[in-house]
Amino acid sequence: MSSGSRMEKNMSGLEPREIEQMPFGDALAELERIVAELEGGQLELEESLARYERGVGLLKSLQARLSDAQQKVTMLIGELEAETPGAREE
Amino acid sequence: MDDDRALSVTEAMTRAKGALETVRVRVVGEVSEFNDKPGYKAAYFTICDGSAAMPCMMWRDAYAASGISLTCGMLVELTGQFSAYVPKGRMQFTVRRLELAGEGRLRLQVAELARRLEAEGLMSEARKRPLPRYPERIAVVTSPRGKAVHDVLRTLRRRYPLAEVLLAGVQVEGEGAEEAIIEGLTVASAAGPDVIVLVRGGGSYEDLMPFSTETVARAIASCPAPVVTGIGHEPDTSIADMVADVRASTPTAAAEAVAPDLVDVAAMLSRDRRSLARALEHRVARDAHRVARVAQRPAFSDPHALLGTAAQALDLAGMRLGRAIPERLARDSQRVEYVRQRLLTAGPRMVERAASRPSLLAARLEDLSPLAILARGWSATFAKDGRTVIRSVRQVRAGDELGVRVSDGVIRCDVVGVEDGEEHERT
Questions:
Q1: Which domain holds residue B71?
Q2: Do residues B139 and B254 both lie within one domain?
Q3: How many domains is chain B built from?
Q4: Contact call for residues A90 and B172 (beta carbons, < 8 A)
Q5: Which residues of chain A does B279 touch, with a Cβ-Cβ cutoff of 8 Å?
Q6: Which residues make beta-bridge pairs with B248?
Q7: pLDDT tens-digit profile of B308-337?
Q8: Tell me, what's the ipTM?
Q9: Which of B193, B261, B338, B367 has the most CB atoms around it within 10 Å of its CB?
Q10: Taking CB atoms and an 8 Å cutoff, what residues of chain B touch A32?
Q11: Domain containing residue B84: CATH number
């Protein structure tokens, strides 16, 4: 439930979410928002630096996830049969 | 042969016709030719299989009653008897009953179901849900054997290994497949995926029938996550395809539709990385430029420019002050004396005036009082209610009761008559 309360805080924007806990899509969306904000040039310098730092953190995490990704397959029903060349479907 | 006599052609054909008409059959074949001219009494067509053909005719009313519009390639089941058309010496099959057969029948059923579900709104565009761009969990419902499942797994592994694949391996054709697919969809939905992929490899039209059943269609429609189908049987579309949120042509295409390509994502990330760095650089450069511009202003580049002026000004003021003081003192003492004199004379007068003010105000107040006006011989006339002031002859009529307010009381009067002011002047 602790992650739930964290989520709530995030919604109100009080505290940035823990990057590693964020789904890939959410982290990517936040990164894109940060890039847009920085490019908008409306932020104070301090805020720009903070966003930049956060952006770099997101970027690192996303790139690491991409390079480390290993497909995980969970069988819900049935048993996966190995692929045999030229096998016909049941 | 009862006699050796040669028959006439008519006799021969009639005999053949009689023999043919004893052959009553039910036959399945594919329509290869079809001729239905409006003026004809019958529809004429040919059915065939790989090695034989059969000319057929069906009386127009029977054909119309069948409700089927024959087209070439259609598989039909015919019930009737052979016969011959004696004038032309042609054999034909007289069709009594016409039904769609095999795939044709299935297609008809599927088309009917599609129409019904469409009318119900199950296939409407408004029901189609968008797919998540970066799914965390992708459920795959398909046969655990064969090419399709591996096509999907391989494609997802290549494009987007980040997503966890939840695989429901179910029987997808033959007896029990319909129930198995529904169970697969139910189990997959329960696992809470972001998207569900329902696929199978190509097969005959009949093999695909479980994907064109009403129960499977409803199971797809009620999935909590969007469903992408990849039921490889171009150009046919199953009911599942029509109800799905996204329809892909093959299992591989379905997998491609649900996951972004890692290469694209990586490219996007490095673009983001560059943008991030560039944006910050710009931001810092802008501030640095502003600082530099301020720094270049004389105030900062030459400390004397700022302080020098002030110092000079101070010096100058000091000098002027030094000169001004004696002159000023003399002038000021004169002014002070003058003000003192005025104050001395003005003071008592101000007190006097202040003391007389209340009585002045009281007198003015009295002037304004209506009583004071009445005291001077004026009067005011009120209506009987004692409140409405009579300002016009139009407010009274003969016989009205009025009150006339004078300084020391009210005189009650009756109106005897009313005269218009102008009239009065004239008379």
A1: 9-100
A2: yes
A3: 4
A4: yes
A5: 35, 38-39, 41, 48, 52
A6: B230
A7: 666 666 676 766 666 666 665 666 666 666
A8: 0.71
A9: B193
A10: 272
A11: 2.40.50.140
